[in-house]
Adapter protein MecA (Paenibacillus beijingensis), 205 residues
Amino acid sequence: MKIERLGQDKIRIFLTFDDLLERGIQKDDMWREIPKVHELFSEMMDQAYSELGFDVNGPLAVEVFALPAQGMVVIVTRGKMNGHVEEGQAVEDDDGEEELYEMEVTLEQSDNIMYLFRDFEDVISVARQLHSSRLTEDGRLYSYNGKYILTFESALVEQPQQNALIALLAEYGEATSVTYAMLEEYGKVIMPSGAVKQICTHFKP
């Protein structure tokens, strides 16, 4: 579980699938009214307070973004809610008082596998491996906050190959908590398509 502050009243929590499995939670459980999800939420808020001093006061808006290969991104915003609560859930704090938070579930529209690389040499290395193993010649390459992110549409890769693709990407890079929407807005496209093929063409060993 990785937590970072996005603003005074907003934090982002990255949950890997291992984080969920350790707690006996399936991906689809995240937007269900079950005790173990409440326990996970309480754990996240405790960790946010201890690591960032993010105090849970009043209503919270919670957005959950499912990423196909990496896990889930949970964005928590503290403050007054606008309008009515469609899926209001009551949570008791330590004093037994109930605090209301709104659970908004937002799923990524495009099914993208995304991995972050700190060094361009790692991007070249993984592209060569993907090319030589004939897994894919596709991919889109972004620069984001001084790092590089390779994205692939999982729908274009068959399941057995998808596992091999992710295993290779994980060797050189790391799963990222950046959502595709954030990448489109704040990242810069270096290669819009065929990134693996282009990298292998331009950077021959």
